[in-house]
């Protein structure tokens, strides 16, 4: 895929590659939607959008994201107060609660390795590297206090050697990154399917967990209402790239 920028007009008149152009249209047309028609979301559309979210990338391909899909009116009524009575939850055909598995290494690591190995997606050298790197980053050690020495050693060595944020210490931060990428793919896929969405962080994690029976091993990251929009006038702006893009140096 190649973009051509004409000298006279710069970014404004890129000779668009049509795939990129339609993608930009899609991204720009998505709006956080607060009013929905009461129509349900057809199951096949919801499944297709979830399928797109499943293909979001994740660190070490561990895929910690779970999707709790709420369509039942009685269950929505329980979720509604947990989401600070945001009307989208009651109105939208479905609301999906995106959670991240705090025990994802125990639950997925071997399975993913096996699947990727069988598909020829990883070679044995990379598998060995993962087998070293993943426990080093995630394991909390005996009594769950292994993160303490990791935090201590991490702090000391990070000035000399670049080390990424250690998952054993910053598990929720790590999960939030993974889950939000899935949620973003979900929202764009929904837009492509003619559905509107509203991402929500306005909820009480404890109350959402209680309403839907979500185990404490899951971190509740984001709630997304999805359905048919009841308004077309929603507008939003974005700040210009100037001032946000830093080229080669901050
Ligand atoms: C992480 C996140 C949390 C949000 N939480 C809420 C929320 O609880 N309720 C709500 O009505 N909108 C929520 N929004 C929507 C934002 O207000 C909205 O995305 C922003 O104003 C930009 O508008 P747009 O999405 O239509 O472009 C949230 C958005 C994000 C990304």
Verbal overview:
The N terminus is likely disordered. 44% of the residues lie in helices and 12% in strands. With 250 residues, it is α+β, with helices and mostly antiparallel strands. Bound molecules: flavin mononucleotide.
Main traits of this protein?
250 residues, four-stranded antiparallel β-sheet, 12% strand, binds flavin mononucleotide
Ends distance: 28 Å
Please provide the ordered H/E string of secondary-structure elements.
HHEHHEHHHHEHE
Widest β-sheet, arrangement of strands: 1-2-4-3
State which percent range the strand residues make up: 5-15%
The residue fraction in helices comes out at 40-55%
Bound molecules: flavin mononucleotide
Q: Count the helices. How many?
A: 9
Structural class designation: alpha+beta
Contiguous uncertain segments of 5+ residues = 1-10
Rounded to an integer in angstroms, the radius of gyration calculated over CA atoms is: 21 Å
Main sheet specs: 4 strands, antiparallel
- Average pLDDT: 90
Principal-axis shape: globular
How many β-strands, per DSSP? 4
